[in-house]
Amino acid sequence: MAKQNQNTMSRALARRETIAAYLFLLPSLIFFLGFVVIPMVICIFTSLTSSNMNASAASGFVGLANFIRLAGDATFIDALINTFVIVLVSVPTVCAFSLWVSSVIYQMNGPTLSLFRCIFYLPVVTGSVAVTVVWKWMYDNYVGVFNYVLTHIGLIERNINWLGDEKYALWCIILILFTTSVGQPIVLYVSALGNVDQSLVEAAEVDGANSMQVFWKIKWPQMMPTTLYILVITTINSFQCFALIQLLTSGGSGTNTVMYYIYYTAFKLTEQAGHFGYANAMGVVLAIFIGLLSAVQFKLAKEK
Amino acid sequence: MKSGVQHKSIYRVLSVILLVILAFLFVFPLYWIVTGAFKTTQEINSVTPVWFPSTWTLDNFTRLFSRRTAPLFPMGPVGPAAIRWLVNTVFMAVAAMVLTCITASMAGYALAKKRFRGRAILFGLIVCAMALPKQVILIPLIREISALGLYDNIWAVIFPTVGWPFGVFLMKQFSESIPGEILEAARIDGANEARTFATIVVPMVKPGIGALAIFTFINSWNDYFMQLIMLSSNNNYTISLGISTLQAETSVDTGMLMAGAALAAAPIIIIFLIFQKYFTQGITMGAVKG
Predict the structure, then answer these.
(1) How far apart are CA A180 and CA A42, in angstroms?
(2) Which fold has domain B60-287?
(3) Closest-CA residue in chain A for B240?
(4) What is the mean pLDDT of residues B260-278?
(5) Domain ranges of chain B
(6) Does B187 touch chain A if contact means CB atoms closer than 8 Å?
(7) CA distance B28 to B46
(8) Confidence of residue A302 (pLDDT cuts 50, 70, 90)
C-alpha cells in the first residue's frame, strides 16, 4: 500500500517535472518548430508535388518525378559537383591550416595570442557582403591588386579575368571562403592544445620522444573531439557560401552550387520561375547529402 | 641533441615569420576597404594600386549618402538611406539577440537539468537542424512568412534567427555545469521553478548568455541570405542588403561601395573587439561535449 502510494507520488513528481520542462521549452519551441521544423516538413512534402508560384495551378502529388527530373538536369549535376568540390577542398585545408596556426600561436603570451586569434577571426566578423565587395575589386581584371602583384612578380604573363574565367572562378570563391572560415577552428584548436594533459607530454619527452612524435602520438589523439567538431562546423559553413556566389558570379563561370540553384529556380529562372516543388526537391537532396556526410565524419572519428 | 634543438628553433622562427606574413594578408581586405573608402575615384581606379591614399576624401561617403534617401526611422525625417539601413540593422540584431538569449537560456536549462519524456528526440532534432543550410527551407519559409503577413518586415528576419537552434544547444552546454544539489536545495527550500531559474540558474550561466548575446548579434548582423529573401523595399533594407543592392546598380563606383562596406563592417568589428573575451568562451563551450 505504502509502495503504491510512493509510486503514484513519484509519477506525479515526474509529471510535474515534464510539465515544468515543457513550459521552459515553450518560447523556444514556438520559434524552432514554427520557423525551422515546420518549413522542413513542408519542404519534404512539396518536393513530392508539382507546386509552383500560382497556388491555383496544378499542385498535385507527383511522387518522385521531381527527383527523377533532377537526376537528368545537367545544371543541377554541375551544381552538385561544384558544391562537393567546394566542401572537399575547403574542409581539409581549413582544418590543416588552423591546426598549424594554432600550434604556432598557442604558447605565445596572452596579448600576442589574442592579437593573432583576432586577426584570423576578422574576416568572419566583417560580414559576407563587405568581404565580397572588396574581393571583387581585388580580383578585378584591370584595377585589381591580384593582377598587378602577380604580373609584377612574374607569376602570370597577362591579366586574368579571375571571376569571369571558368578555370579560376570557383577557386577564387574557395579562397575567399577559406579566409572567412579559419577563425573559429583556430579559436577551438588553441583552447584544445592548451588543454592537452601536460604530464603525458612530459613523460613522453623524458622517454626521448621528439616534438613531432609528441604531437602526433600524444596531442593529436587528445584533440580528436575538437577535430570532429571542427570538421562538422566547417562542412556546414562551406555549404553556406551563398552570398559569395550570388554577389560575385551569380552562379556563372562554372560556380553554380546547389544552394544558389535552389534560390535561382525559386525566384530567378525566367521560364520556370517559382517551380517550388522542383526547388524543394533539390533542398531535400542537399539535406540528405549533408546528413550522410555528417554521419561518415562521425563514424570515422569514432573509429580513430 | 644540440642540433635537434637548433633545428627546432629554426623551424619555430620560420613558422612565426610565415604566420606574420599570413596575418598581413588576412588583414589586407579590411585595410583595403577602409583606405578605399577615403580614396579619390582616380586612385581607386588606378591600374597601379595606390597602397596608401595620398589625399583623404569624404566624397565616397557623400555619394553614398546622397544616392538614396529614406525616413531615418518610421515616420521620421528624411535622411540618407544608408543611415536608415544601419538603424534597421541595429534594431534587427538587438531584437534577435534579446529574444534568443531569453528563449535559449530557458530551453537550454530544461534540456540540461530536467528529465522528461521526449528529451532525447528533441535534442536529436536540434542537433540535426543545426547542420541544415537555410536554403533548404527557403521556399516554405517565405510562404509561411507571407501567410503571416510579415513579408518585407524586419521581424521576418528576426523570427527565423531566433528559431535557429544553435543558441539552445550552446545554453544546454553551459547549463550542464550547474550542480544538481543546488537546484535540489532550492526546491527543498520551497522555491518554485520560475524563482529557481531567475535567482539560481541565470546567475550561474551568465557567461553563456554573454557569449550567446554577442554570437547572435554578429550572426544576425551578417546573415545576408535571410535579409535578401525576406526584405524587398528600400526603407526596410539592412545595411548589408543595401550595399549589395548598390553593387548591383552601380558596380563601377568602387569608392562608394567601399564607403558602404566600411559603414557596414565598422560597428560590428568594434563590438567584436570589445566583447572578444565572451566570444572566445562561447565558441569553445559549444565544442565541449559536443
Answers:
(1) 32
(2) MetI-like fold (1.10.3720)
(3) A129
(4) 89
(5) 2-57, 60-287
(6) no
(7) 18
(8) low
